[in-house]
Each structure stands twice: as C-alpha cells, then as structure tokens.
Amino acid sequence: MRTREIIGREVVPYAAGIGLVLVTTLLGELIKRRLEPTNLAMLYLLAVVIAAVRLGKGPAVATAILSVLAFDFFLVLHTEA
Questions:
Q1: Residue 32 lies in a domain
Q2: Residue 29: inside a domain, yes or no?
Q3: Which domain holds residue 60?
Q4: CA-only gyration radius of the chain, Å
Q5: Computed from CA positions of residues 68, 78, 19, 38, in that sequence, does the dihedral angle turn out positive or negative?
C-alpha cells in the first residue's frame, strides 16, 4: 500500500505539468489567429514558471520539454523549403 502512495506522490506533479501544457495548447489554439507566435510562446513560458514554482524541478523540466514540442507541433506554421 505504501508503494502506491509513494508512486502516486511522484506521478501527480508530472501529470499536473502535462495538464498545464494541454491547457496552454488549447488556449493557444483559440487565440493563435490574434497573436504572433512569439507571444504565444510566452504562454508556454508561464506554464513552465508555474510548474517550477508549484511542482518542483523535475516536473518543470518535463513541462518545458513538452511545451517546446507542443508549441512546435501545434502552433508553428511549417512551410516546405
């Protein structure tokens, strides 16, 4: 029983970081037509700062990596050369 509690305490902050990236991506999708990509990146920076302050170093790093991937995949217009 204690093992599940320990694993739960370790997993919950990472899940919260994923949730922050998800919410930020959805918000970015809603407002990407009104803002430049540089300004949209600031939303992800805010998510990373919140993760760092509230969740700890490990979840903040994971949130930062996921934020870069989500921003690049969902919000950056890719053109073929």
A1: yes
A2: yes
A3: 2-75
A4: 15
A5: positive
Burial class (CB in 10 A: 0-12, 13-18, 19+), 3: exposed
Number of domains in the chain: 1
Distances in Å between the Cα of 32 and the Cα atoms of 19, 28, 48, 67, 69 are 19, 5, 19, 15, 16
- Residue whose entry in the numeric block shows the structure tokens 């093992």: 3
Domain for residue 81, yes or no?
A: no
Which residues contact residue 51 at a Cβ distance below 8 angstroms, ignoring those fewer than 6 apart?
A: 16, 17, 20, 59, 60, 63, 64
**8 A C-beta contact, residue 74 and residue 28:** yes
pLDDT tens sequence for the chain (81 residues): 567 776 778 899 999 999 999 999 999 999 999 999 889 999 999 999 999 999 999 999 999 999 999 999 998 877 776
